[in-house]
Specification:
Layout (H helix, E strand, L loop, with lengths): L1 H15 L14 E5 L2 E8 L2 E6 L8 H16 L2 E8 L3 E7 L2
Antiparallel strand pairs: 1-2, 2-3, 3-5, 4-5
Amino acid sequence: MIYRKLISLLAISFVAACNAPPRDYWGVEPIRATVNGDVFDVRRMGEAAVAVRVNTAYRPRLSAVAPQARKAIEIATGCLIVGPVTGDPVIIHATIECK
């Protein structure tokens, strides 16, 4: 019985953390953007932005997700990305320049 409750609690915790932003972005309201079937929650703080991919994909690589994440950040913020994006296939960071 205890084992079953522990498994349930772990499963709920895992699902709840799926689209959680990095700690620096807690409290920042996301803007949802969809690009070529990939769905991102984009958050901006000054000249930095983060895109959290919220759709499921089987073993995606950053190189496959990065172009969609770049476009999602530009759409959601209205700014241009300067330099490369970094991160992993779920959380992608970018430096932005707004005019």
